[in-house]
Each structure stands twice: as C-alpha cells, then as structure tokens.
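Case study: Oligopeptide/dipeptide ABC transporter ATP-binding protein.
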Amino acid sequence: MNTLEIEELRLTLPGTARPVLNGVTLAVGAGETVALVGESGSGKTLTSRAALGFLPRDAEVTGVVRVAGKDLLTMTPEELRGVRALTVSMIFQEPRTSLNPLRRIGDFLTEGLRTNLHWTAQRAGDRARELLDAVGLDDRVLRQYPHELSGGMLQRVTIAAALMSDPALLLADEPTTALDVTTQAEIVALLADLRTRFQTALLFVTHDLHLAAAISDRVCVMYAGRIVESGPADALFDKPRHPYTAALLGSTPRLDHPRKRLDAISGQPPDLRTALSGCPFAARCPHATDLCRAETPASTPVDGGTVACHHHELLSLEGI
Ligand SMILES: Nc1ncnc2c1ncn2[C@@H]1O[C@H](COP(=O)(O)OP(=O)(O)OP(=O)(O)O)[C@@H](O)[C@H]1O
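Here is what the predicted structure looks like once written out:
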C-alpha cells in the first residue's frame, strides 16, 4: 500500500476562472521520496498541505487524499488531528516561524508526544535526545531558546520535531529556501540520510528540478495546477518528455555546470483569473500546434511514469 495517494484532486477557490488544482494524481510509496516540482503558483504547496488535510476553508474540493489507506477528505476534525499528530509531519520553509520564541527547544520537541500519546517527560526527553543526535545536534540544545540557534540548526530541530512521532509520511515544503547555500547542501544531505535511516516516505516540494533529482526516487512536475510529467528522477532528468520539464531543466543553475548558459522560460504561467482551454503550457511552448491550443492533453502512462503532452512521442524521438 502507498503511504500517500492523491487521486484526481480538484480544488476551486471563489473568484477564480479555473481550478487551482486540476485533477492532481500522485502517490508516494512506503519509504519512497517523491519531489513535487514547479514554478511559483503552480499549486505545490496546496497539494502538499492537502496531504495534511489542510485545505482553504472556502475551497470547493473533489477527489481523494489517502494517507496509509484512509481518506483525509472524509475524516472528522478529531480524526484529522490524530493524523497530523502521529502519521504525517511537515517541515516548513522558514524554521523560525514554526517555533515559539519563548519556549525552550526541549519543550517544543517533547510536547506533541506528551500531549497526544501521554508519554512521560523522561520517555519523551530520551526520544528527543535520540533525534537530536540523528540530526547532528548536541543535546545541550534542549535547554536553549530558538534565538540562540542559527537558521541551519533550527531547521535541524524542526526536522527532529517532525520525526518525533515516527510518522509514516514527511512533507518538506522548500525546506532549504531560507538557508545559505552551504547549509542548504547540509540539510539536503541530512534529509537523504534520515529517509533511509527512518524509512519515512517523503514528499519534497521545490522549484529546483536539479535539487529534486538529487534527493528523490521519483519526480512529479506541476504546471498550472496539473501534474504534466512524472517519472523516475534520473530518467526524467536525462530524457524529459514534456517541453515544460525540458524548459525547467534548461533554466535552473547546476552545481556541476555553474557557468552553463541558462535559458529563461519565456512568458508567465497563467494566473488564476485566466480560464484555460487546451494545453496550459501551449502559450509558452516552442512546439505548440493548433491541437495543443484546442485540446487539453490527457495524462498518459509512459515507461515508469506519465506525461500530458500531445506531441511527447515525436518530441522524445527528436530529443527535446
Ligand atoms: N487560500 C488561498 N486563497 C486564494 N488563493 C490561494 C490560496 N492559497 C493559494 N492560493 C493561490 O493558488 C495558487 C497556487 O498556490 P501554491 O501556494 O500551492 O503555489 P506554489 O506552487 O506552492 O507556489 P510557491 O512556490 O510560490 O509557494 C497561487 O496562485 C496562490 O496565489
């Protein structure tokens, strides 16, 4: 059984001309890391928050969001609280905003298990020390306050906190964006190490396709509320099938080719006030034809993944 299954998730917000999520389907297997990649506004955060059962209050939602076999969209608030406390944890972009500045790190780490599972202070403290060690921090941190730690140390603390309940699924939403480049690399290496050590499924949200390929088993590429391509990370990286994936690869700096010329993707992603017909990427795609502008391509299974492009077979042959 997959740890996370999202099927045909469609989410519409009031006052918009099209759904902000438009039939998102993705799965994360037990212990697997899947990256969700796309430009700002493509719907990555809304998708990952849906895996915690957090949806905008005024949204119209259809589809299925199953965690460990149970559909979050039909759960009672009480059941949802249980899932968030024990089964799914989230690591946020900016660690400082997820910690209370007035509370010691030790209290922050242990309060969930003490409240939700009624663990004793001793037992929860032992678990906190074990996890601080796993994330490379000394247990003196337990007595410190957030302002005494650097951004990188705080992100390690929030990762330890996310793992305290031994969750089946970890959601990481741009967890390195607020950090400097060296610390970013350390946090990515740490997450890669922890996912094998703790066997936690990980959904990693990022706008950086190279980072996604480095950390994940599979990648889902999002554009305008849809998954336009998914597949094994190395295959998608070596041989993208969707013109948008190819364009994203060409526009992201690479650590191994820092001087390579970058090609910006021309145009802007469509905003939510624009109704879309046809392929959502057609207006920016160098390969678009009348068919693309008229008909929305369905997501089609291909070797180990999916692609939603009318011309993917031809483009794969030509090597986009
Ligand atoms: N509660 C909300 N009310 C209105 N619009 C929203 C709400 N939440 C998200 N949106 C809009 O939905 C779209 C998708 O948002 P989302 O945060 O999922 O994008 P994203 O891909 O994560 O982008 P970023 O990388 O900038 O965080 C955006 O246009 C955003 O402005």
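For the exam, be able to explain this: DSSP finds eleven helices and twelve strands in the chain.
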